[in-house]
Amino acid sequence: MSAGRERQAEVFLAGAAGGRARVPFGAALLEERAQAKMSAEAFAYVAGGAGAEETMRANRRAFERASLVPRTLRDVSRRDTSIELFGRRLPAPFLLAPIGVLELAHRDADVAAARAAASLGLPAILSSQASMPMEEVAASTGEAPRWFQLYWSTVDELTKSFVERAERCGCEAIVITLDTTLLGWRTRDLELGYLPFLHGRGIAQYTSDPVFQRLVRERARGRATATGRPTLTALRTLLELRRNVRGLDPRAAVQTFTEIYSRPSLRWEDLISIRDLTRLPVLLKGILHPDDARRAVEAGFDGVVVSNHGGRQLDGAIATVDALPAIVEEVAGRIPVLLDSGIRSGADALKALVLGATAVLVGRPYVYGLAVDGEIGAREVLRNLVADFDLTLGLSGCASLADVGDLTLVYSQPVDD
């Protein structure tokens, strides 16, 4: 039985016996249920976008404007949703996007999300801003596929250490995020005055790193003693810091992180040096312009991820699915083109594949599943996406991803708000 029919049978048989799924199937209800489980600060950090959140809305509008034109009278009784990516056969064209500070959704954080992906054979892309060190996550998922997402630090030695650690713990690719050399103007977080990193959250990759530990110790030795009477809120923050940052001066650790985590001066010449650090496949995430995709190919990178960071960085940026066709044309099959930002259903994923994407990254939905029911919740969200994709593929007249090229999309005109 296919993934889609198996999931349907499981849910309907449970329903016939009086059972109901704890994790919602619809994207809107899933988000609503997650919000009820999360603190206001946590939900704002995950759900929010930059500025007026126009880019975030544009990602969804772009998918909604595109309509599949299915083919009929084809044998789709057996369907193969698998793809091959960098030498590994994956059961479906989905990867877990790297999302930081997963402890905001659930205490088991990155381990729970990675286990959920591993149970389905899908790669989890471990975040630089994780709540748990990559080694701990790797130990919990065995031989399951995993990649590592890298923010290029202002300290080259730290960047090198991250890449070396990723290799040692079995990561199969490095994904360099390009669009976060500066933090976007995230209004929901600004309204609450909350940035999790300043509370010692989401910096576990750093505090577990020997290079970073040395930098913190050096800073702590040279830091002046604080003067003045601290406020009650400041004392609470300090207590939280001490709970979240162990073995290091917590204030020095946070101050060091904020100074070095990302490099605004990053250029193509800097990126090319990663070939001296690793032989793993290296993908560039945050590509939206075809000229940048061309440069990525010419510079010898192994893949690109068409991404606007889920609308969290540059407000007013082009929707990823609108940027995708020109990038696919420029790349011309020389390297894989992945896509994220706005994927909420199997139909969204199929539309991206029709436009030339090799695979898609899923972000907020699995975090919402994590908030609703931990590892089980994240796994259910991923199972539902894979099942939905399997049935959508068949109903479109495709027995495998090799048939997707026969499909076309038509576009409705945007409606003025």
Describe this protein's structure.
With 417 residues, the chain is an alpha/beta fold. Helices cover 46% and strands 11% of the residues. The chain has an 8-stranded parallel sheet. β9 (303-306), α15 and β10 (337-339) form a beta-alpha-beta unit.
Whole-number radius of gyration? 22 Å
Query: Any low-confidence stretches, pLDDT <50, length ≥5?
Result: none
Regarding quaternary structure, what we see is single chain
Helix residue percentage? 40-55%
Q: How do the helices and strands follow one another from N- to C-terminus?
A: HHHHEEEEHEHEHEHHHHHHEHEHEHEHE
Q: Provide the residue-averaged pLDDT.
A: 95
Task: Tell me the strand percentage band.
Answer: 5-15%
Total strand count, please? 12
Overall form: globular
Q: Structural class of the secondary elements?
A: alpha/beta
Distance between the termini: 44 Å
State the helix count: 17
**Strand order within the widest sheet?**
4-11-10-9-8-7-6-5
**Largest sheet report:** 8 strands, parallel
Question: Can you describe this structure in just a few lines?
Answer:
This protein is 46% helix and 11% strand.
